[in-house]
Amino acid sequence: MKIGVLTSSRADFGIYKQLLKEISELIDFEIIAFGTHLSKFHGFTIDEIRSEFTVPIHQINTVLANDDVNSIASSYGLTVQKFADFWNNSSFDLVLCLGDRYEMNAALQAGIPYNVKFAHFHGGEESLGAIDNIYRHQITLASQIHFTATKDYYNRVVELIGTSEGVYNVGSIALDKISKLKLLSNDEFRNKYNIPNEDYILVTIHPETKNVDANKKYSLEIYEALKNLGKDYHIVITMPNSDTLGSIYRNAWAELKTVFPNSVTLIENFGAENYYAAMKYSKLLLGNSSSGIIEAASFNKYVINVGDRQKGRIRSSNTLDVDFNFNRIIAKVKEINSLDQYQGDNKYFKENSIQKVINIIKDYDGF
Protein backbone atom coordinates (compact mmCIF):
# COMPACT_ATOMS: atom_id res chain seq x y z
CA MET A 1 0.00 0.00 0.00
CA LYS A 2 1.30 3.44 -0.96
CA ILE A 3 0.01 6.54 0.81
CA GLY A 4 0.35 10.18 -0.20
CA VAL A 5 0.20 12.95 2.40
CA LEU A 6 -0.89 16.43 1.28
CA THR A 7 0.50 19.21 3.45
CA SER A 8 0.21 22.88 2.55
CA SER A 9 1.20 24.68 5.75
CA ARG A 10 2.90 24.51 9.14
CA ALA A 11 -0.55 24.04 10.72
CA ASP A 12 -1.60 20.81 9.02
CA PHE A 13 1.91 19.34 9.19
CA GLY A 14 1.97 19.85 12.95
CA ILE A 15 -1.31 17.95 13.28
CA TYR A 16 -0.14 15.11 11.02
CA LYS A 17 3.31 14.67 12.50
CA GLN A 18 2.73 12.14 15.27
CA LEU A 19 0.49 10.07 13.00
CA LEU A 20 3.18 9.99 10.32
CA LYS A 21 5.83 8.94 12.82
CA GLU A 22 3.74 5.98 13.89
CA ILE A 23 2.49 5.03 10.45
CA SER A 24 6.00 5.09 8.96
CA GLU A 25 6.78 1.74 10.57
CA LEU A 26 3.81 0.06 8.91
CA ILE A 27 2.94 1.73 5.61
CA ASP A 28 4.98 3.34 2.83
CA PHE A 29 4.10 6.99 2.36
CA GLU A 30 5.30 10.00 0.43
CA ILE A 31 4.82 13.64 1.40
CA ILE A 32 3.37 16.12 -1.09
CA ALA A 33 4.42 19.58 0.12
CA PHE A 34 3.03 22.77 -1.39
CA GLY A 35 1.54 26.11 -0.34
CA THR A 36 3.46 28.10 2.26
CA HIS A 37 5.89 25.25 2.95
CA LEU A 38 7.84 26.48 -0.08
CA SER A 39 7.57 30.20 0.70
CA LYS A 40 10.59 31.89 2.27
CA PHE A 41 8.27 34.71 3.29
CA HIS A 42 6.39 32.22 5.51
CA GLY A 43 9.45 30.53 6.98
CA PHE A 44 10.23 27.92 4.27
CA THR A 45 8.85 25.16 6.49
CA ILE A 46 9.78 22.48 3.98
CA ASP A 47 13.02 22.38 5.97
CA GLU A 48 11.13 21.18 9.02
CA ILE A 49 9.57 18.37 7.00
CA ARG A 50 12.99 17.32 5.69
CA SER A 51 14.41 17.30 9.20
CA GLU A 52 11.63 15.02 10.47
CA PHE A 53 11.23 12.48 7.66
CA THR A 54 13.45 10.74 5.11
CA VAL A 55 10.56 9.57 2.91
CA PRO A 56 10.19 10.90 -0.66
CA ILE A 57 9.00 14.52 -0.57
CA HIS A 58 7.33 16.04 -3.63
CA GLN A 59 7.54 19.84 -3.82
CA ILE A 60 4.92 21.77 -5.76
CA ASN A 61 5.23 25.57 -5.87
CA THR A 62 1.78 27.16 -5.74
CA VAL A 63 1.89 30.39 -3.68
CA LEU A 64 1.96 33.82 -5.31
CA ALA A 65 3.70 36.76 -3.66
CA ASN A 66 0.68 38.97 -2.96
CA ASP A 67 -2.33 38.28 -0.72
CA ASP A 68 -5.03 40.46 -2.29
CA VAL A 69 -8.27 38.82 -3.42
CA ASN A 70 -7.14 38.43 -7.04
CA SER A 71 -3.83 36.85 -6.02
CA ILE A 72 -5.57 34.31 -3.75
CA ALA A 73 -7.94 33.36 -6.58
CA SER A 74 -5.02 33.13 -9.01
CA SER A 75 -3.07 30.99 -6.56
CA TYR A 76 -6.05 28.65 -6.35
CA GLY A 77 -6.06 28.30 -10.13
CA LEU A 78 -2.29 27.76 -10.21
CA THR A 79 -2.60 25.03 -7.58
CA VAL A 80 -5.24 23.23 -9.64
CA GLN A 81 -3.04 23.44 -12.72
CA LYS A 82 0.08 22.19 -10.95
CA PHE A 83 -1.78 19.30 -9.33
CA ALA A 84 -3.43 18.30 -12.60
CA ASP A 85 0.07 17.52 -13.85
CA PHE A 86 1.08 15.89 -10.58
CA TRP A 87 -1.90 13.52 -10.39
CA ASN A 88 -1.44 12.66 -14.05
CA ASN A 89 2.05 11.38 -13.29
CA SER A 90 1.52 9.86 -9.83
CA SER A 91 -0.25 6.87 -8.35
CA PHE A 92 -1.33 6.36 -4.72
CA ASP A 93 -3.71 3.92 -3.09
CA LEU A 94 -4.89 6.65 -0.75
CA VAL A 95 -4.00 10.32 -0.19
CA LEU A 96 -4.37 11.98 3.22
CA CYS A 97 -5.63 15.56 3.39
CA LEU A 98 -6.49 17.79 6.31
CA GLY A 99 -8.52 20.84 7.16
CA ASP A 100 -9.98 23.61 5.08
CA ARG A 101 -7.32 25.68 3.34
CA TYR A 102 -8.02 26.93 -0.19
CA GLU A 103 -4.77 25.35 -1.41
CA MET A 104 -5.80 21.97 0.00
CA ASN A 105 -9.17 22.18 -1.69
CA ALA A 106 -7.56 23.11 -5.02
CA ALA A 107 -5.27 20.07 -4.83
CA LEU A 108 -8.26 17.79 -4.25
CA GLN A 109 -10.42 19.28 -6.97
CA ALA A 110 -7.62 18.62 -9.46
CA GLY A 111 -7.59 14.98 -8.37
CA ILE A 112 -11.27 14.28 -8.99
CA PRO A 113 -10.97 13.52 -12.74
CA TYR A 114 -8.07 11.15 -11.95
CA ASN A 115 -10.21 9.27 -9.40
CA VAL A 116 -7.69 9.94 -6.64
CA LYS A 117 -8.91 8.48 -3.33
CA PHE A 118 -8.70 10.93 -0.43
CA ALA A 119 -8.96 10.55 3.35
CA HIS A 120 -9.94 13.82 5.03
CA PHE A 121 -9.28 14.89 8.62
CA HIS A 122 -11.42 17.49 10.44
CA GLY A 123 -14.37 17.45 8.08
CA GLY A 124 -17.85 18.50 9.13
CA GLU A 125 -16.65 21.48 11.17
CA GLU A 126 -18.00 25.00 10.87
CA SER A 127 -16.07 28.27 10.76
CA LEU A 128 -18.74 30.65 9.54
CA GLY A 129 -16.52 33.73 9.56
CA ALA A 130 -14.12 32.31 6.98
CA ILE A 131 -14.43 31.23 3.38
CA ASP A 132 -12.56 28.10 4.52
CA ASN A 133 -15.97 26.81 5.57
CA ILE A 134 -16.85 26.39 1.89
CA TYR A 135 -13.53 24.77 1.04
CA ARG A 136 -13.85 22.30 3.93
CA HIS A 137 -17.19 21.00 2.75
CA GLN A 138 -15.91 20.74 -0.83
CA ILE A 139 -13.00 18.65 0.43
CA THR A 140 -15.47 16.42 2.26
CA LEU A 141 -17.46 15.86 -0.92
CA ALA A 142 -14.26 14.95 -2.80
CA SER A 143 -13.08 12.43 -0.18
CA GLN A 144 -13.79 8.74 0.39
CA ILE A 145 -12.70 8.41 4.03
CA HIS A 146 -13.59 10.94 6.72
CA PHE A 147 -11.92 11.21 10.13
CA THR A 148 -14.00 13.59 12.23
CA ALA A 149 -13.12 15.14 15.57
CA THR A 150 -16.50 15.02 17.37
CA LYS A 151 -19.82 13.23 17.08
CA ASP A 152 -21.55 16.41 15.86
CA TYR A 153 -19.02 16.74 13.04
CA TYR A 154 -19.49 13.06 12.20
CA ASN A 155 -23.21 13.69 11.84
CA ARG A 156 -22.62 16.69 9.59
CA VAL A 157 -20.35 14.71 7.26
CA VAL A 158 -22.94 11.95 7.05
CA GLU A 159 -25.53 14.57 6.15
CA LEU A 160 -23.24 16.10 3.51
CA ILE A 161 -22.34 12.88 1.72
CA GLY A 162 -25.61 11.01 2.33
CA THR A 163 -24.09 7.92 3.97
CA SER A 164 -22.17 6.85 7.06
CA GLU A 165 -19.94 4.56 5.02
CA GLY A 166 -16.33 5.61 5.33
CA VAL A 167 -17.05 8.11 8.15
CA TYR A 168 -15.24 7.64 11.47
CA ASN A 169 -15.40 9.75 14.63
CA VAL A 170 -11.83 9.41 15.95
CA GLY A 171 -11.21 12.73 17.70
CA SER A 172 -8.40 15.11 16.78
CA ILE A 173 -5.17 13.22 16.04
CA ALA A 174 -3.20 16.25 17.25
CA LEU A 175 -4.33 15.54 20.81
CA ASP A 176 -3.73 11.81 21.03
CA LYS A 177 -0.13 11.89 22.31
CA ILE A 178 0.09 15.57 23.16
CA SER A 179 0.57 14.98 26.89
CA LYS A 180 3.53 12.68 26.16
CA LEU A 181 5.46 15.03 23.89
CA LYS A 182 8.97 15.87 25.06
CA LEU A 183 8.77 19.65 25.04
CA LEU A 184 11.47 22.12 25.91
CA SER A 185 11.54 23.18 29.55
CA ASN A 186 10.28 26.65 30.37
CA ASP A 187 13.84 28.00 30.62
CA GLU A 188 14.95 26.24 27.42
CA PHE A 189 11.95 27.57 25.52
CA ARG A 190 12.39 31.15 26.70
CA ASN A 191 16.12 31.10 25.98
CA LYS A 192 15.57 29.70 22.50
CA TYR A 193 13.19 32.50 21.53
CA ASN A 194 14.55 35.25 23.78
CA ILE A 195 11.31 35.56 25.74
CA PRO A 196 11.77 37.19 29.16
CA ASN A 197 10.84 35.37 32.35
CA GLU A 198 7.46 37.02 32.81
CA ASP A 199 3.84 36.23 31.99
CA TYR A 200 3.15 36.33 28.27
CA ILE A 201 0.08 36.16 26.06
CA LEU A 202 0.32 33.93 22.98
CA VAL A 203 -1.34 35.69 20.04
CA THR A 204 -2.35 34.18 16.69
CA ILE A 205 -4.58 36.32 14.47
CA HIS A 206 -5.55 35.41 10.92
CA PRO A 207 -7.63 37.63 8.60
CA GLU A 208 -11.41 37.41 8.53
CA THR A 209 -11.93 36.13 5.01
CA LYS A 210 -15.72 36.50 4.87
CA ASN A 211 -15.73 40.18 5.85
CA VAL A 212 -12.48 41.08 4.08
CA ASP A 213 -12.97 44.84 4.06
CA ALA A 214 -13.17 44.94 7.88
CA ASN A 215 -9.63 43.66 8.41
CA LYS A 216 -8.09 47.12 8.48
CA LYS A 217 -10.43 48.14 11.31
CA TYR A 218 -9.90 44.82 13.10
CA SER A 219 -6.13 45.14 12.93
CA LEU A 220 -6.34 48.59 14.56
CA GLU A 221 -8.53 47.26 17.37
CA ILE A 222 -6.25 44.33 18.14
CA TYR A 223 -3.20 46.60 17.85
CA GLU A 224 -4.65 48.93 20.50
CA ALA A 225 -5.51 45.97 22.73
CA LEU A 226 -2.00 44.52 22.53
CA LYS A 227 -0.44 47.94 23.07
CA ASN A 228 -2.41 48.19 26.32
CA LEU A 229 -1.79 44.59 27.40
CA GLY A 230 1.92 45.04 26.74
CA LYS A 231 2.11 47.13 29.90
CA ASP A 232 1.45 44.04 32.04
CA TYR A 233 2.44 41.13 29.79
CA HIS A 234 5.00 40.19 27.23
CA ILE A 235 3.30 39.60 23.87
CA VAL A 236 4.34 36.60 21.74
CA ILE A 237 2.82 36.77 18.25
CA THR A 238 2.85 34.00 15.65
CA MET A 239 2.59 35.48 12.18
CA PRO A 240 -0.54 34.95 10.03
CA ASN A 241 -0.80 32.47 7.19
CA SER A 242 -1.34 33.27 3.52
CA ASP A 243 -5.02 34.18 3.73
CA THR A 244 -6.45 37.20 1.95
CA LEU A 245 -4.95 40.43 3.35
CA GLY A 246 -2.81 38.72 5.95
CA SER A 247 -0.22 41.42 5.25
CA ILE A 248 -2.42 43.94 7.09
CA TYR A 249 -1.76 42.08 10.34
CA ARG A 250 1.88 41.45 9.50
CA ASN A 251 2.39 45.18 9.06
CA ALA A 252 0.58 45.92 12.33
CA TRP A 253 2.77 43.45 14.23
CA ALA A 254 5.92 44.86 12.69
CA GLU A 255 4.91 48.35 13.81
CA LEU A 256 4.04 47.06 17.30
CA LYS A 257 7.48 45.47 17.55
CA THR A 258 9.12 48.72 16.45
CA VAL A 259 7.23 50.78 19.03
CA PHE A 260 7.63 48.22 21.85
CA PRO A 261 10.80 46.28 21.01
CA ASN A 262 11.22 44.80 24.50
CA SER A 263 7.59 43.79 25.04
CA VAL A 264 6.87 41.98 21.77
CA THR A 265 8.28 38.79 20.23
CA LEU A 266 7.37 37.95 16.62
CA ILE A 267 7.63 34.32 15.50
CA GLU A 268 7.25 33.26 11.87
CA ASN A 269 7.14 29.54 12.63
CA PHE A 270 7.55 27.78 15.97
CA GLY A 271 7.17 24.26 14.60
CA ALA A 272 4.61 21.96 16.20
CA GLU A 273 6.39 21.02 19.43
CA ASN A 274 7.63 24.51 20.17
CA TYR A 275 4.20 25.97 19.47
CA TYR A 276 2.81 23.54 22.03
CA ALA A 277 5.55 24.64 24.44
CA ALA A 278 4.48 28.23 23.77
CA MET A 279 0.93 27.26 24.74
CA LYS A 280 2.06 25.39 27.82
CA TYR A 281 4.07 28.24 29.30
CA SER A 282 1.75 31.09 28.30
CA LYS A 283 -0.64 32.92 30.58
CA LEU A 284 -3.44 32.60 28.02
CA LEU A 285 -4.10 32.50 24.27
CA LEU A 286 -5.64 35.32 22.27
CA GLY A 287 -6.65 35.22 18.62
CA ASN A 288 -8.86 33.45 16.10
CA SER A 289 -6.92 30.29 15.28
CA SER A 290 -8.38 26.79 15.34
CA SER A 291 -5.45 25.75 17.54
CA GLY A 292 -6.99 27.77 20.36
CA ILE A 293 -10.33 26.06 19.89
CA ILE A 294 -8.97 22.52 19.47
CA GLU A 295 -5.69 22.20 21.36
CA ALA A 296 -5.44 24.80 24.13
CA ALA A 297 -7.76 22.96 26.53
CA SER A 298 -5.29 20.07 26.61
CA PHE A 299 -2.75 22.48 28.11
CA ASN A 300 -5.27 23.80 30.67
CA LYS A 301 -5.26 27.21 29.01
CA TYR A 302 -8.03 29.72 28.56
CA VAL A 303 -8.51 31.21 25.11
CA ILE A 304 -9.93 34.57 24.11
CA ASN A 305 -11.39 33.87 20.69
CA VAL A 306 -11.74 37.13 18.73
CA GLY A 307 -14.23 37.81 15.95
CA ASP A 308 -16.22 35.49 13.72
CA ARG A 309 -13.54 33.42 11.97
CA GLN A 310 -14.17 30.39 14.23
CA LYS A 311 -17.90 31.01 14.62
CA GLY A 312 -19.77 27.70 14.56
CA ARG A 313 -16.93 25.50 15.86
CA ILE A 314 -17.66 23.45 18.97
CA ARG A 315 -15.97 24.94 22.01
CA SER A 316 -14.71 23.48 25.23
CA SER A 317 -15.50 25.62 28.26
CA ASN A 318 -12.02 27.23 28.24
CA THR A 319 -12.99 29.45 25.29
CA LEU A 320 -14.27 33.00 25.82
CA ASP A 321 -15.62 34.77 22.74
CA VAL A 322 -15.32 38.50 22.06
CA ASP A 323 -15.58 40.77 19.04
CA PHE A 324 -12.79 42.96 17.65
CA ASN A 325 -13.08 45.70 20.26
CA PHE A 326 -9.97 46.54 22.24
CA ASN A 327 -11.81 47.48 25.44
CA ARG A 328 -13.76 44.21 25.44
CA ILE A 329 -10.62 42.21 24.71
CA ILE A 330 -8.86 43.79 27.69
CA ALA A 331 -11.92 43.09 29.86
CA LYS A 332 -11.78 39.39 28.88
CA VAL A 333 -8.13 39.22 29.91
CA LYS A 334 -9.06 40.65 33.31
CA GLU A 335 -11.88 38.12 33.56
CA ILE A 336 -9.46 35.24 32.96
CA ASN A 337 -7.13 36.63 35.60
CA SER A 338 -9.91 36.18 38.13
CA LEU A 339 -10.30 32.48 37.28
CA ASP A 340 -8.43 29.44 38.54
CA GLN A 341 -6.45 27.40 36.04
CA TYR A 342 -8.71 25.64 33.54
CA GLN A 343 -9.30 22.03 34.60
CA GLY A 344 -12.14 21.07 32.27
CA ASP A 345 -12.19 18.58 29.43
CA ASN A 346 -11.33 18.94 25.75
CA LYS A 347 -14.26 18.07 23.51
CA TYR A 348 -11.91 17.15 20.65
CA PHE A 349 -9.96 14.50 22.56
CA LYS A 350 -10.46 10.75 22.15
CA GLU A 351 -8.22 7.96 23.40
CA ASN A 352 -6.06 6.15 20.84
CA SER A 353 -7.24 8.22 17.87
CA ILE A 354 -3.98 7.67 15.97
CA GLN A 355 -4.15 3.90 16.29
CA LYS A 356 -7.77 3.94 15.15
CA VAL A 357 -6.79 5.91 12.05
CA ILE A 358 -3.91 3.54 11.29
CA ASN A 359 -6.19 0.49 11.58
CA ILE A 360 -8.77 2.04 9.26
CA ILE A 361 -6.14 2.97 6.67
CA LYS A 362 -4.58 -0.51 6.77
CA ASP A 363 -8.00 -2.07 6.17
CA TYR A 364 -8.92 0.31 3.35
CA ASP A 365 -9.95 -1.54 0.20
CA GLY A 366 -11.52 1.28 -1.80
CA PHE A 367 -15.01 0.28 -0.70
TrEMBL record:
<keyword id="KW-0378">Hydrolase</keyword>
<protein>
    <submittedName>
        <fullName>UDP-N-acetylglucosamine 2-epimerase</fullName>
        <ecNumber>3.2.1.183</ecNumber>
    </submittedName>
</protein>
<dbReference type="Pfam" id="PF02350">
    <property type="entry name" value="Epimerase_2"/>
</dbReference>
<dbReference type="GO" id="GO:0016798">
    <property type="term" value="F:hydrolase activity, acting on glycosyl bonds"/>
</dbReference>
<dbReference type="InterPro" id="IPR003331">
    <property type="entry name" value="UDP_GlcNAc_Epimerase_2_dom"/>
</dbReference>
<keyword id="KW-0326">Glycosidase</keyword>
<feature type="domain" description="UDP-N-acetylglucosamine 2-epimerase">
    <location>
        <begin position="27"/>
        <end position="362"/>
    </location>
</feature>
<dbReference type="InterPro" id="IPR029767">
    <property type="entry name" value="WecB-like"/>
</dbReference>
<dbReference type="InterPro" id="IPR020004">
    <property type="entry name" value="UDP-GlcNAc_Epase"/>
</dbReference>
